[in-house]
Amino acid sequence: MRYLGLDYGDRLLGVALGEGQLVTPLTSLNSKNWKTAATGISKLASTNRISKIVLGLPLGQSKELSSQAVQVKKFANFLEKEVKLPVILVNEVNSSQEALDRSLELDQSSPKNRRHLDSLAAAIILERYLLHLEKEISKSAVKS
Question: What residues in the chain have per-residue pLDDT under 50?
Fold first, then answer.
């Protein structure tokens, strides 16, 4: 099964591709116009035979819905209708900071790499989801 991971921001939408345990940052799309973003996501989903979309939800430590989290939920509903794929929301707490930390380790943190950071954050969100899936599969295998 193939997945698209998304990191929603006010200006940019980071995109990553995942299959099995392999996750690759792809690109960033403009998120200001949801229709245009949905068209780009739809093209990527079709080209890569995507089954599900994993979208980061900014819950933070308290898990309360901030105004940004409300916006992301609205975008998720819009995206499901436009792209006609299930959208799974995953807590994205600290994903942007982790993306920055990884970029610093690779010496790729210059401002011109901002789009790279957004797609890397999307990859981190997708990695978390796939790791969660793997744990759930392992738990059910042990119970059988």
Answer: none
